[in-house]
Amino acid sequence: MKLRLQALARRVGHTFADEALLETAMRHRSWISEHDGFESNERLEFLGDAIVGWVVADIVYTQHSELPEGKLTDLRKSVVNAIALAEMAVDLDIGSCIMLGKGEAAAGGNEKTSILSDAFEAVIGAVYLDAGPTVAHSVVSALMAPRIADAVGGLDRLDAKTRLQELASRLLDQHVHYKVEDEGPDHEKMFYATVIIGERELGSGKGRSKKAAEQIAAEIACDTLQREYNTQLQ
Q: Catalytic positions, please?
């Protein structure tokens, strides 16, 4: 475990003066229930959640002075959410280091979105306690700045549901409805959304959350309407 944690620290980009902090960040509450005398990563996750939000807000505010408040919020939400943070955890291979109880491990807990995102935030909380806000800011910036930059390019498509509602109202004078279904166990649930305008299905999408599936379906529906009504939109 010590070697795995040292490798994780290198991937994170921080050498811990107190290696016990990183170990605590890897202790899921299911492991704690089977081992007395240890602290779970929940308090570190609480701290890290606030730090990640602060750093990303600082980055988008400082680097994108051209964006209004609403767009800044959209940009922050696109990279600070459970799915995006779990992807960060996967990139860092945090899952291989998380300590889980036997039942959670058997259920594939080291691949669950909630456990991975919480563990990532716990790592950031550990960095903050180990070295302070300046270093924590630097670490989060290095890890997340590329994702923020990628998100800026698709900023106009972040809220496809709002754009679709505007198009449907303008072109069709009809309301937009979504039909959502899901399948799979809780830790691997997949959502399927279909956009319905009037009596017509205009797009469908799938994602790890209801919102993600609806956004993808809405994007497809927007593209369909824009093609069909191209003349009116010019």
A: 49, 121
Q: Do residues 7 and 75 both lie within one domain? A: yes
Q: Total domain count for the chain?
A: 2
Residues 184, 200: one domain? Answer: yes
Which pLDDT tens digit goes with each residue over 197-211? 988 999 999 888 888
pLDDT value, residue 234? 47
Could you tell me the pTM of the whole model?
0.70
CA–CA separation, 213 and 205 (whole Å): 5
Maximum Cα interatomic distance, the chain, rounded to a whole number of Å: 69
